[in-house]
Amino acid sequence: MAASTARIATARIKTANGRRYMTQLCKHWAHKFEVVHDENQGLVPFSPDRRCRMAADGEGLTLTIEVEDAAQLERMQEVVIDHLKRFAFREDLGEVAWTAVR
Q1: Which residues are CB-neighbours of 24 under 8 A, at least 6 positions away?
Q2: pTM of this prediction?
Q3: In 7, 14, 71, 73, which residue has its Cα 20 to 30 A from 47's Cα atom?
Q4: Summary mean pLDDT of the chain
Q5: Which Pfam families does the record match to this protein (predicted)?
Q6: Contact indicator for 76, 83 with CB cutoff of 8 Å
Q7: Count of beta carbons in the 10 Å neighbourhood of residue 46
Q8: What is the model's pLDDT at position 49?
Q9: 2 vs 57: CA distance, rounded Å
Q10: What are the residue boundaries of the structural domains of the chain, listed by start?
Q11: Binning pLDDT at 50, 70 and 90, where does residue 1 land?
Q12: If one looks up domain 7-40+47-100 in CATH, what number appears?
């Protein structure tokens, strides 16, 4: 992915279950993609031009979406949050606010 054309957005979700949710997301997507993860971080390469990076700690989960095509950014944000909320159905994560990095 060319750094100059990539669109990047990040969101921080406050939850004591960040590591668990990240692991669930990584395992879920590992059936289709070459996912790499450990207890603190994960990378889901949806395609050569779309990926999601995750970082978890005791206070929450940080999601970073990187896309080559700006038109895909909002859709990728929706996909990731939709999946996260499925795993976090016992917890109200509130409204997720994305911040454009570039």
Answers
A1: 87
A2: 0.91
A3: 14
A4: 93
A5: DUF2218 (PF09981)
A6: no
A7: 19
A8: 94
A9: 29
A10: 7-40+47-100
A11: low
A12: 3.30.310.50
65 pLDDT above the threshold of 60: yes
- State percent of the chain over pLDDT 70: 96
Shortest CA distance to 82 belongs to which of 69, 66, 93? 93
- Nearest-angstrom CA–CA distance, 92 and 81: 12
- Residues 86, 82: Cα–Cα separation, whole Å: 6
Residue 92 carries which side chain, given as an amino acid letter?
D
- Distances from the Cα of 10 to the Cα of 27, 31, 79, angstroms: 21, 24, 14
Q: Please indicate whether residue 2 or residue 34 has the higher confidence score (pLDDT).
A: 34
Q: Position 4: which residue type?
A: S
Pick the closest to residue 12 from 72, 63, 87 (CA basis). Answer: 63
